[in-house]
Amino acid sequence: MNEEQGGGPGSPRAIVVGHGEFAGGLVSAVGQICGMADKLVVLSMMGMTPEDIESTIREQLDRTGARVIFTDLPAGSATIAARRIVKEDPGIVLVSGVNLATLLDFVFSTAASPTEAARAAAERGKASLIVVGR
Amino acid sequence: MAIHLYRIDDRLIHGQVVVGWGQPLNARFMVLVDDLVASSEWEKELYRMAVPPEMEIFFADVATAIKDHARYATDPRPGMLITGDIGSMYHLVKGVKAIGSVNLGGIHHRAGRTQKLRYVFLTADEERQLRALEAAGVEVTAQDVPSARARPLSEVLEGESP
Question: Do B52 and A84 touch (CB under 8 A)?
Answer without folding.
Answer: no
